[in-house]
Design goal:
Number of helices: 17
Helix content: 25-40%
Shape: globular
Distance between the termini: 21 Å
Length: 449
């Protein structure tokens, strides 16, 4: 497949703006030279960024794989989430010291120089282990396709949700006959629901947790509602900004109204408030184990379609093949087998709140019994994702640039129209900027499905 087009020194120079200095931990790159497990004949080194409950669930799945496949020694390493992880993975691939298997957020794949720092998946080999394109939501599968080749194999989607307290909503007559929150189809209906919930909630609590001061959450919420309005970002060639400032203003005004009308206490601990009785909170699906562990009577639905079209922000944990100059043979086959196994046995993963990407799992009786997961599984069919450009994705440049702008509007330090104009200006600059991984602009990167 050939060597990648940049070495570790060049890579360090190119990504100096990312928070990497002093914390790279080169020892973590490793060589895999330690002895194989006693019964194993080959090894798969696997890097991930899963900690907490996700980490425990991943370890359980890996242990199940080890038990079923004793001839494969899985050496898993959990590295620091965010840019430190991506930096180490890029340097390992550039220095030909990459593990056989890794994990990435799908939104970061287009910026990771596919073909140079990532190797494509062998779809025929995946099919041999029971994973095919037909087993996936087409939009999700195609997010991992760059220049006609699959570079990311989705494990899940994780989405932003509207969590609600059933005990509070019952008092406000806001539950349907099915015991779930009544449907919402407009901003007027949504604020009417908040008004009714506020009238019966405990004193001293906010009505909804909205992470008003967090740039990531505010950005994720913005992406969801901007998508509901049919907003676009760039033309297909990635040469022109098509961002609609008027639609963006509508979204920012909507988010701001929650604070202006007194439904939010800025800075309040959203999770604690919800556990203590606040009617609503908007959180990622990873909060499911927390709220279920607190034994709350609650439900969770995709973000309300207040602008008429269903769309909730979604990202995806995906398996990738970090570049190896001599990728192939038994270890490469084992990496495919391991990834396919985890994808197909993701019921354990679903317990952490994530929606399994392997759609046959969603139709199993065991998954259908999971609550509240079975209430929001439909989010798979209306994902609101960031544009497919090098500067997008979890903890990416796009969120770092536009997230604080969304916060300024929600908190009232900037007018929504002015914030929308600032967003468009940032997008124009980003579109013309070059990916530090390969020195190409979005238009030059070939990131098209």
């Amino acid at each position: 497949m050939g060597q990648p087009g940049l070495n570790r020194r060049q890579l360090l120079a190119g990504i100096g703006g990312l928070t990497v200095a002093g914390s790279l931990g080169f020892a973590a790159l490793g060589t895999g030279a330690d002895a194989l497990a006693s019964s194993a004949s080959s090894r798969v080194r696997y890097w991930n960024l899963f900690s907490g409950g996700d980490g425990a669930n991943m370890i359980a799945m890996l242990d199940a794989f080890r038990k079923a496949n004793p001839s494969i020694d899985v050496k898993d390493s959990t590295l620091q989430w965010g840019n430190p992880f991506y930096t180490k993975l890029a340097m390992a691939a550039a220095g030909n010291r990459a593990p056989e298997l890794g994990v990435m957020h799908m939104g970061r794949v287009a910026g990771f120089s596919p073909g140079r720092l990532l190797d494509p998946w062998d779809e025929a080999l995946l099919a041999r282990y029971g994973v095919r394109k037909e087993d996936y939501n087409p939009a999700l599968w195609n997010r991992g396709v760059i220049d006609g080749k699959l570079y990311a194999l989705p494990l899940d989607i994780h989405v932003q949700l509207c969590f609600y307290r059933k005990d509070v909503l019952k008092k406000a007559d806001l539950l349907g006959d099915d015991g779930r929150m009544i449907p919402v189809g407009s901003t007027t209906e949504w604020f009417d629901i908040l008004k009714k919930a506020k009238a019966v909630q405990k004193k001293g609590l906010q009505t909804i947790g909205l992470w008003t001061q967090d740039q990531n959450f505010q950005w994720w919420f913005f992406v969801a509602f901007y998508t509901q309005l049919g907003g676009t970002w760039f033309n297909d060639a990635k040469t022109e900004v098509t961002f609609d400032a008027d639609k963006a203003t509508q979204v920012l005004e909507f988010l701001r109204q929650h604070v202006a009308d007194g439904y939010v206490i800025p800075g309040a601990p959203t999770g604690e408030q919800f556990i203590n009785g606040a009617p609503f909170t908007w959180e990622g699906n990873w909060s499911v184990p927390v709220f279920s562990g607190a034994k709350l009577d609650y439900g969770a639905t995709p973000l309300p379609p207040v602008f008429g079209k269903q769309a909730t922000h979604a990202e995806s944990h995906s398996f990738v093949l970090p570049h190896q100059a001599n990728r192939g043979g038994t270890t490469n086959e084992d990496a495919h087998q391991l990834a396919a196994y985890v994808v197909k046995h993701a019921l354990q993963w679903a317990a952490g709140g994530h929606i399994p990407a392997y759609t046959p799992t969603l139709s199993t009786a065991a998954y259908k019994k999971l609550t509240p997961q079975n209430e929001y599984a439909s989010a798979m069919d209306h994902q609101a994702t960031e544009p497919k450009v090098w500067f997008a994705g979890s903890t990416g440049v796009l969120a770092q640039d536009l997230g604080p702008v969304a916060v300024s509007s929600t908190m009232g330090s900037a007018k929504p129209a002015a914030a929308a104009a600032t967003m468009k200006s940032h997008l124009t600059k980003l579109l013309a900027s070059k990916n530090p991984m390969d020195g190409k602009t979005a238009a030059q990167g070939g990131a098209s499905a």
